[in-house]
Amino acid sequence: MNNRSSSRPHRYKSGRPNRYTNYSSLNHRPKQSSRRIDPQRFVNTATVTEEIIPFIPQHQFSDFGLMPALQQTLIQRGYTMPTPIQDEAILPALAGRDTIGLANTGTGKTAAFVLPIIQRLKTIASGQIALIIAPTRELALQINDEFRYFAGGLGLYSTLCVGGANMNRQISQLTRKPQAIIGTPGRLKDLNSQGVLKLNQVGILVLDEVDRMLDMGFINDIRYLVSKLPAARQSLCFSATIPPQISALLNEMLTNPVTVSVKTSETSDHVQQDIIRATSKEEKVTILQDLLRQNDFEKVLIFGRTKWGVHRLAENLTKQGIPAEAIHGNKSQPQRQRALQIFKDGKVGVLVATDVAARGLDIPLVSHVINFDQPDNYDDYIHRIGRTGRAGNQGKALTFVT
Protein backbone atom coordinates (compact mmCIF):
# COMPACT_ATOMS: atom_id res chain seq x y z
CA MET A 1 0.00 0.00 0.00
CA ASN A 2 1.11 3.58 -0.61
CA ASN A 3 2.43 4.26 2.87
CA ARG A 4 4.40 1.04 3.06
CA SER A 5 7.82 0.20 1.81
CA SER A 6 8.10 -1.48 -1.59
CA SER A 7 11.76 -2.37 -1.11
CA ARG A 8 11.24 -5.99 -0.06
CA PRO A 9 12.96 -8.47 -2.42
CA HIS A 10 10.96 -10.18 -5.13
CA ARG A 11 10.46 -13.70 -3.83
CA TYR A 12 9.51 -15.49 -7.01
CA LYS A 13 11.49 -15.76 -10.20
CA SER A 14 9.63 -14.89 -13.35
CA GLY A 15 8.74 -17.69 -15.71
CA ARG A 16 8.26 -20.28 -12.95
CA PRO A 17 4.88 -21.36 -11.59
CA ASN A 18 4.36 -20.05 -8.06
CA ARG A 19 1.53 -19.57 -5.65
CA TYR A 20 0.50 -16.36 -7.38
CA THR A 21 0.33 -18.08 -10.76
CA ASN A 22 -2.91 -18.05 -12.69
CA TYR A 23 -4.31 -21.56 -13.20
CA SER A 24 -4.89 -20.75 -16.84
CA SER A 25 -1.14 -20.32 -17.34
CA LEU A 26 -0.41 -23.92 -16.26
CA ASN A 27 -0.47 -26.94 -18.50
CA HIS A 28 -2.30 -29.18 -16.06
CA ARG A 29 -5.92 -28.93 -14.95
CA PRO A 30 -6.29 -27.51 -11.42
CA LYS A 31 -7.66 -29.60 -8.62
CA GLN A 32 -11.33 -28.94 -8.00
CA SER A 33 -12.09 -26.74 -4.99
CA SER A 34 -14.09 -28.21 -2.16
CA ARG A 35 -16.58 -25.40 -2.88
CA ARG A 36 -19.17 -25.63 -5.62
CA ILE A 37 -17.42 -23.08 -7.83
CA ASP A 38 -14.81 -24.13 -10.39
CA PRO A 39 -11.67 -22.05 -9.64
CA GLN A 40 -11.36 -21.30 -13.36
CA ARG A 41 -14.36 -19.01 -12.97
CA PHE A 42 -12.27 -16.77 -10.71
CA VAL A 43 -9.88 -16.06 -13.61
CA ASN A 44 -10.61 -13.39 -16.17
CA THR A 45 -8.58 -10.79 -18.04
CA ALA A 46 -9.96 -7.27 -17.81
CA THR A 47 -10.79 -5.45 -21.00
CA VAL A 48 -8.07 -2.99 -21.97
CA THR A 49 -9.40 0.51 -21.50
CA GLU A 50 -8.52 1.59 -25.04
CA GLU A 51 -10.59 -1.26 -26.48
CA ILE A 52 -13.78 -0.38 -24.62
CA ILE A 53 -16.41 1.13 -26.86
CA PRO A 54 -17.66 4.23 -25.03
CA PHE A 55 -21.33 4.35 -24.18
CA ILE A 56 -23.18 7.08 -26.03
CA PRO A 57 -26.41 7.95 -24.19
CA GLN A 58 -29.57 8.96 -26.00
CA HIS A 59 -30.13 11.78 -23.51
CA GLN A 60 -28.36 14.29 -21.36
CA PHE A 61 -29.63 15.03 -17.87
CA SER A 62 -30.88 18.35 -19.19
CA ASP A 63 -33.24 16.43 -21.52
CA PHE A 64 -35.27 14.83 -18.72
CA GLY A 65 -37.25 17.94 -17.81
CA LEU A 66 -36.14 17.92 -14.19
CA MET A 67 -36.94 20.95 -12.05
CA PRO A 68 -34.27 23.69 -12.07
CA ALA A 69 -33.13 22.94 -8.50
CA LEU A 70 -32.45 19.30 -9.39
CA GLN A 71 -30.66 20.28 -12.56
CA GLN A 72 -28.47 22.68 -10.61
CA THR A 73 -27.57 19.96 -8.11
CA LEU A 74 -26.64 17.63 -10.97
CA ILE A 75 -24.37 20.30 -12.45
CA GLN A 76 -22.72 20.92 -9.08
CA ARG A 77 -22.07 17.20 -8.73
CA GLY A 78 -20.61 16.94 -12.22
CA TYR A 79 -23.47 14.89 -13.70
CA THR A 80 -23.82 15.60 -17.40
CA MET A 81 -24.20 12.28 -19.23
CA PRO A 82 -26.37 9.52 -17.72
CA THR A 83 -25.21 5.95 -17.31
CA PRO A 84 -27.03 3.29 -19.41
CA ILE A 85 -29.56 2.45 -16.66
CA GLN A 86 -30.20 6.14 -15.99
CA ASP A 87 -30.51 6.85 -19.71
CA GLU A 88 -33.26 4.27 -20.16
CA ALA A 89 -35.04 4.14 -16.77
CA ILE A 90 -35.44 7.78 -15.76
CA LEU A 91 -38.01 8.78 -18.40
CA PRO A 92 -40.52 5.93 -17.77
CA ALA A 93 -40.09 6.44 -14.02
CA LEU A 94 -40.78 10.16 -14.43
CA ALA A 95 -43.88 9.28 -16.45
CA GLY A 96 -45.21 7.21 -13.54
CA ARG A 97 -44.74 3.84 -15.24
CA ASP A 98 -43.98 0.72 -13.25
CA THR A 99 -40.40 -0.10 -14.17
CA ILE A 100 -38.07 -3.09 -13.90
CA GLY A 101 -34.41 -2.13 -14.21
CA LEU A 102 -31.83 -4.83 -14.86
CA ALA A 103 -28.24 -3.67 -14.60
CA ASN A 104 -24.86 -4.71 -13.28
CA THR A 105 -23.87 -3.50 -9.85
CA GLY A 106 -22.16 -0.13 -9.69
CA THR A 107 -23.96 1.34 -12.71
CA GLY A 108 -25.82 4.23 -11.10
CA LYS A 109 -29.13 2.56 -10.25
CA THR A 110 -29.68 4.71 -7.17
CA ALA A 111 -29.85 7.99 -9.09
CA ALA A 112 -32.05 6.26 -11.69
CA PHE A 113 -34.88 6.07 -9.16
CA VAL A 114 -34.02 8.83 -6.65
CA LEU A 115 -34.20 11.61 -9.25
CA PRO A 116 -37.65 10.62 -10.59
CA ILE A 117 -38.96 10.15 -7.04
CA ILE A 118 -37.90 13.64 -5.98
CA GLN A 119 -39.35 15.17 -9.14
CA ARG A 120 -42.69 13.40 -8.71
CA LEU A 121 -42.96 14.09 -4.96
CA LYS A 122 -42.52 17.81 -5.67
CA THR A 123 -44.90 17.92 -8.63
CA ILE A 124 -47.37 15.15 -9.46
CA ALA A 125 -47.36 13.00 -6.30
CA SER A 126 -47.47 15.78 -3.72
CA GLY A 127 -48.79 14.48 -0.39
CA GLN A 128 -47.75 10.92 -1.12
CA ILE A 129 -44.88 8.94 0.37
CA ALA A 130 -42.06 7.04 -1.31
CA LEU A 131 -41.14 3.71 0.32
CA ILE A 132 -37.69 2.43 -0.67
CA ILE A 133 -36.74 -1.07 0.47
CA ALA A 134 -33.15 -2.34 0.35
CA PRO A 135 -31.66 -5.65 1.51
CA THR A 136 -28.88 -4.30 3.75
CA ARG A 137 -28.37 -1.44 6.19
CA GLU A 138 -25.40 -0.17 4.21
CA LEU A 139 -27.35 0.06 0.96
CA ALA A 140 -30.28 1.73 2.70
CA LEU A 141 -27.88 4.27 4.23
CA GLN A 142 -26.34 4.97 0.84
CA ILE A 143 -29.75 5.51 -0.74
CA ASN A 144 -30.73 7.83 2.11
CA ASP A 145 -27.56 9.87 1.60
CA GLU A 146 -28.28 10.17 -2.13
CA PHE A 147 -31.88 11.20 -1.49
CA ARG A 148 -30.88 13.86 1.01
CA TYR A 149 -28.18 15.19 -1.28
CA PHE A 150 -30.47 15.61 -4.29
CA ALA A 151 -33.45 16.78 -2.23
CA GLY A 152 -31.44 19.39 -0.36
CA GLY A 153 -33.35 22.68 -0.13
CA LEU A 154 -36.53 21.24 -1.66
CA GLY A 155 -38.45 20.68 1.57
CA LEU A 156 -38.40 16.89 1.24
CA TYR A 157 -37.28 14.75 4.14
CA SER A 158 -36.42 11.10 4.61
CA THR A 159 -36.25 8.65 7.49
CA LEU A 160 -33.89 5.70 7.63
CA CYS A 161 -35.45 2.59 9.20
CA VAL A 162 -32.91 -0.22 9.59
CA GLY A 163 -32.04 -2.84 12.15
CA GLY A 164 -29.13 -2.30 14.51
CA ALA A 165 -30.12 1.31 15.08
CA ASN A 166 -32.26 2.97 17.76
CA MET A 167 -35.90 2.12 17.04
CA ASN A 168 -37.29 4.85 19.32
CA ARG A 169 -35.41 7.46 17.32
CA GLN A 170 -36.85 6.04 14.09
CA ILE A 171 -40.35 6.10 15.58
CA SER A 172 -39.84 9.74 16.57
CA GLN A 173 -38.70 10.61 13.03
CA LEU A 174 -41.72 8.86 11.52
CA THR A 175 -44.07 11.11 13.53
CA ARG A 176 -42.64 14.05 11.57
CA LYS A 177 -44.24 12.63 8.41
CA PRO A 178 -41.21 12.27 6.10
CA GLN A 179 -41.87 12.13 2.38
CA ALA A 180 -39.44 9.22 1.87
CA ILE A 181 -39.03 6.17 4.08
CA ILE A 182 -35.94 4.10 3.35
CA GLY A 183 -35.26 0.86 5.14
CA THR A 184 -34.65 -2.86 5.36
CA PRO A 185 -37.55 -5.34 5.22
CA GLY A 186 -37.33 -6.66 8.79
CA ARG A 187 -37.29 -3.27 10.51
CA LEU A 188 -40.01 -1.87 8.24
CA LYS A 189 -42.23 -4.85 9.01
CA ASP A 190 -41.62 -4.44 12.76
CA LEU A 191 -42.51 -0.75 12.65
CA ASN A 192 -45.66 -1.45 10.65
CA SER A 193 -46.70 -4.25 13.00
CA GLN A 194 -46.39 -1.83 15.92
CA GLY A 195 -48.67 0.63 14.15
CA VAL A 196 -46.08 3.42 13.91
CA LEU A 197 -45.33 3.01 10.18
CA LYS A 198 -48.44 3.85 8.16
CA LEU A 199 -48.27 2.63 4.57
CA ASN A 200 -51.64 3.82 3.28
CA GLN A 201 -50.12 6.98 1.75
CA VAL A 202 -47.34 5.25 -0.17
CA GLY A 203 -47.60 6.33 -3.78
CA ILE A 204 -44.18 5.13 -4.95
CA LEU A 205 -42.54 1.82 -4.03
CA VAL A 206 -38.93 0.94 -4.81
CA LEU A 207 -37.41 -2.51 -4.36
CA ASP A 208 -33.65 -2.20 -4.81
CA GLU A 209 -31.37 -5.23 -5.26
CA VAL A 210 -34.50 -7.34 -5.18
CA ASP A 211 -32.66 -10.60 -5.96
CA ARG A 212 -30.47 -10.09 -2.90
CA MET A 213 -33.59 -9.77 -0.76
CA LEU A 214 -34.61 -13.21 -1.99
CA ASP A 215 -31.14 -14.58 -1.19
CA MET A 216 -31.34 -13.18 2.34
CA GLY A 217 -34.74 -14.70 3.05
CA PHE A 218 -36.77 -11.46 2.94
CA ILE A 219 -39.32 -12.59 0.36
CA ASN A 220 -42.11 -13.10 2.93
CA ASP A 221 -41.39 -9.72 4.55
CA ILE A 222 -41.58 -8.10 1.13
CA ARG A 223 -44.92 -9.78 0.41
CA TYR A 224 -46.21 -8.60 3.80
CA LEU A 225 -45.21 -4.99 3.16
CA VAL A 226 -46.57 -4.96 -0.39
CA SER A 227 -49.91 -6.30 0.89
CA LYS A 228 -50.22 -3.21 3.10
CA LEU A 229 -49.73 -0.72 0.26
CA PRO A 230 -52.42 1.00 -1.79
CA ALA A 231 -53.19 -0.80 -5.03
CA ALA A 232 -52.90 2.50 -6.91
CA ARG A 233 -49.18 3.22 -6.78
CA GLN A 234 -46.04 3.30 -8.89
CA SER A 235 -43.55 0.46 -8.37
CA LEU A 236 -39.89 0.49 -9.40
CA CYS A 237 -37.77 -2.65 -9.09
CA PHE A 238 -34.03 -2.75 -9.69
CA SER A 239 -31.82 -5.81 -9.68
CA ALA A 240 -28.92 -7.58 -11.33
CA THR A 241 -30.95 -10.77 -11.89
CA ILE A 242 -34.59 -11.82 -11.77
CA PRO A 243 -34.87 -15.35 -10.31
CA PRO A 244 -38.18 -17.24 -10.82
CA GLN A 245 -39.53 -16.39 -7.34
CA ILE A 246 -38.87 -12.71 -7.90
CA SER A 247 -40.41 -12.89 -11.36
CA ALA A 248 -43.58 -14.33 -9.81
CA LEU A 249 -43.64 -11.54 -7.21
CA LEU A 250 -43.18 -8.84 -9.83
CA ASN A 251 -45.99 -10.30 -11.95
CA GLU A 252 -48.28 -9.93 -8.93
CA MET A 253 -47.31 -6.40 -7.91
CA LEU A 254 -46.55 -4.56 -11.17
CA THR A 255 -48.96 -3.16 -13.73
CA ASN A 256 -47.88 -3.13 -17.38
CA PRO A 257 -44.22 -2.54 -16.43
CA VAL A 258 -41.49 -1.17 -18.64
CA THR A 259 -38.47 -3.49 -18.55
CA VAL A 260 -35.10 -1.83 -19.00
CA SER A 261 -32.13 -4.16 -19.36
CA VAL A 262 -28.61 -2.84 -19.66
CA LYS A 263 -26.91 -5.80 -17.98
CA THR A 264 -23.76 -6.62 -19.91
CA SER A 265 -21.86 -9.62 -18.52
CA GLU A 266 -21.65 -11.78 -15.42
CA THR A 267 -18.62 -9.92 -14.12
CA SER A 268 -17.32 -6.47 -14.75
CA ASP A 269 -15.24 -6.08 -17.90
CA HIS A 270 -13.04 -3.72 -15.90
CA VAL A 271 -11.99 -6.26 -13.25
CA GLN A 272 -8.82 -8.31 -13.66
CA GLN A 273 -9.58 -11.60 -11.89
CA ASP A 274 -7.09 -14.18 -10.69
CA ILE A 275 -6.52 -16.82 -8.03
CA ILE A 276 -3.94 -17.36 -5.31
CA ARG A 277 -3.04 -20.88 -4.26
CA ALA A 278 -2.37 -21.67 -0.62
CA THR A 279 -2.06 -24.95 1.25
CA SER A 280 -3.30 -23.74 4.65
CA LYS A 281 -4.99 -20.87 6.41
CA GLU A 282 -1.65 -19.83 7.90
CA GLU A 283 -0.15 -19.57 4.42
CA LYS A 284 -3.16 -17.53 3.27
CA VAL A 285 -2.53 -15.03 6.06
CA THR A 286 1.18 -14.79 5.19
CA ILE A 287 0.47 -14.24 1.50
CA LEU A 288 -2.21 -11.70 2.30
CA GLN A 289 0.15 -9.66 4.46
CA ASP A 290 2.78 -9.72 1.71
CA LEU A 291 0.24 -8.49 -0.83
CA LEU A 292 -1.09 -5.69 1.34
CA ARG A 293 2.42 -4.32 1.82
CA GLN A 294 2.76 -3.73 -1.92
CA ASN A 295 2.26 -0.16 -3.06
CA ASP A 296 -0.44 -0.84 -5.64
CA PHE A 297 -2.77 -2.36 -3.01
CA GLU A 298 -4.09 1.08 -2.14
CA LYS A 299 -7.70 0.51 -1.07
CA VAL A 300 -8.51 -3.13 -0.44
CA LEU A 301 -11.80 -4.83 0.42
CA ILE A 302 -11.36 -8.34 1.84
CA PHE A 303 -14.24 -10.80 2.14
CA GLY A 304 -14.43 -13.55 4.73
CA ARG A 305 -17.05 -16.18 5.52
CA THR A 306 -17.80 -15.71 9.22
CA LYS A 307 -18.25 -12.77 11.56
CA TRP A 308 -15.61 -14.06 13.96
CA GLY A 309 -13.16 -14.84 11.17
CA VAL A 310 -13.52 -11.34 9.71
CA HIS A 311 -13.07 -9.72 13.11
CA ARG A 312 -10.01 -11.80 13.91
CA LEU A 313 -8.40 -11.21 10.50
CA ALA A 314 -8.79 -7.42 10.82
CA GLU A 315 -7.22 -7.52 14.30
CA ASN A 316 -4.35 -9.70 13.05
CA LEU A 317 -3.57 -7.35 10.15
CA THR A 318 -3.63 -4.32 12.43
CA LYS A 319 -1.21 -5.98 14.84
CA GLN A 320 1.11 -6.65 11.91
CA GLY A 321 1.24 -2.95 11.03
CA ILE A 322 -1.47 -3.05 8.35
CA PRO A 323 -4.35 -0.95 9.75
CA ALA A 324 -7.67 -2.62 8.99
CA GLU A 325 -11.32 -2.20 9.95
CA ALA A 326 -14.04 -4.85 9.97
CA ILE A 327 -17.78 -4.84 9.33
CA HIS A 328 -20.06 -7.77 10.10
CA GLY A 329 -23.47 -8.55 11.52
CA ASN A 330 -22.42 -8.46 15.17
CA LYS A 331 -21.43 -4.80 14.95
CA SER A 332 -23.97 -2.10 15.64
CA GLN A 333 -25.06 0.17 12.83
CA PRO A 334 -23.02 3.15 14.13
CA GLN A 335 -19.92 0.92 14.34
CA ARG A 336 -20.45 -0.30 10.79
CA GLN A 337 -21.01 3.23 9.51
CA ARG A 338 -17.83 4.41 11.23
CA ALA A 339 -15.75 1.59 9.74
CA LEU A 340 -17.12 2.25 6.26
CA GLN A 341 -16.57 5.98 6.52
CA ILE A 342 -12.93 5.83 7.58
CA PHE A 343 -12.32 3.32 4.77
CA LYS A 344 -14.02 5.61 2.26
CA ASP A 345 -12.00 8.56 3.55
CA GLY A 346 -8.72 6.65 3.18
CA LYS A 347 -7.89 6.72 6.89
CA VAL A 348 -7.39 2.96 6.67
CA GLY A 349 -6.56 1.13 3.48
CA VAL A 350 -8.11 -2.24 4.33
CA LEU A 351 -11.71 -3.20 5.12
CA VAL A 352 -12.53 -6.80 6.02
CA ALA A 353 -16.17 -7.77 5.64
CA THR A 354 -18.69 -10.56 5.50
CA ASP A 355 -21.10 -10.63 2.57
CA VAL A 356 -23.18 -7.98 4.31
CA ALA A 357 -21.01 -5.51 2.39
CA ALA A 358 -21.18 -7.23 -0.99
CA ARG A 359 -24.27 -5.44 -2.28
CA GLY A 360 -24.87 -1.87 -3.08
CA LEU A 361 -21.93 -0.19 -1.39
CA ASP A 362 -20.59 2.69 -3.40
CA ILE A 363 -16.99 2.96 -2.22
CA PRO A 364 -14.90 5.03 -4.63
CA LEU A 365 -11.65 3.74 -6.08
CA VAL A 366 -11.37 0.31 -4.45
CA SER A 367 -8.17 -0.99 -6.03
CA HIS A 368 -8.56 -4.65 -5.04
CA VAL A 369 -11.16 -7.10 -3.82
CA ILE A 370 -9.68 -10.18 -2.14
CA ASN A 371 -11.77 -13.24 -1.38
CA PHE A 372 -9.94 -14.59 1.65
CA ASP A 373 -12.73 -17.16 1.90
CA GLN A 374 -14.51 -18.28 -1.23
CA PRO A 375 -18.17 -17.27 -1.56
CA ASP A 376 -20.94 -19.83 -1.33
CA ASN A 377 -22.05 -19.33 -4.91
CA TYR A 378 -21.04 -17.54 -8.07
CA ASP A 379 -23.69 -14.82 -7.74
CA ASP A 380 -22.13 -13.80 -4.42
CA TYR A 381 -18.75 -13.75 -6.14
CA ILE A 382 -20.07 -11.37 -8.79
CA HIS A 383 -21.45 -9.01 -6.19
CA ARG A 384 -18.27 -9.09 -4.15
CA ILE A 385 -15.95 -8.19 -7.00
CA GLY A 386 -18.41 -5.56 -8.18
CA ARG A 387 -17.02 -3.32 -5.43
CA THR A 388 -13.97 -2.65 -7.64
CA GLY A 389 -13.68 -1.61 -11.27
CA ARG A 390 -16.58 0.84 -10.87
CA ALA A 391 -17.46 3.85 -13.01
CA GLY A 392 -15.17 2.65 -15.81
CA ASN A 393 -12.07 2.33 -13.62
CA GLN A 394 -9.84 -0.75 -13.69
CA GLY A 395 -9.97 -3.04 -10.67
CA LYS A 396 -8.46 -6.33 -9.53
CA ALA A 397 -10.02 -9.30 -7.77
CA LEU A 398 -8.06 -12.14 -6.18
CA THR A 399 -9.53 -15.32 -4.74
CA PHE A 400 -7.70 -17.73 -2.45
CA VAL A 401 -7.94 -21.37 -3.50
CA THR A 402 -6.72 -24.03 -1.09
Give keywords.
Rossmann fold; seven-stranded parallel sheet; 2 domains; 402 residues; disordered N terminus; 16% strand; 13 strands; six-stranded parallel sheet
Can you describe this structure?
This protein is of the alpha/beta class and 402 residues long. The protein folds into two domains: 23-51 and 269-401, Rossmann fold (3-Layer(aba) Sandwich), CATH 3.40.50; 61-261, Rossmann fold (3-Layer(aba) Sandwich). Helix content is 34%, strand content 16%. It contains 13 helices and 13 strands. Strand 10 (324-327), helix 12 (333-344) and strand 11 (350-353) form a beta-alpha-beta unit. Helix 2 (84-94) packs parallel to helix 3, helix 3 (109-122) crosses helix 4 and helix 6 (185-193) crosses helix 8 (219-227). The protein is globular and about 60 Å long. It starts with 67 loop residues before the first helix and ends with a strand. Residues 2-35 and 48-52 have low confidence and may be disordered.
The helix tally amounts to 13
> What fold name stands as the CATH topology of the largest domain?
Rossmann fold
Tally the structural domains: 2
- CATH domain class of the largest domain: Alpha Beta
Q: Give the name of the CATH architecture of the largest domain.
A: 3-Layer(aba) Sandwich
Task: Work out the helicity level.
Answer: 25-40%
What structural class do helix, strand and pairing data support? alpha/beta
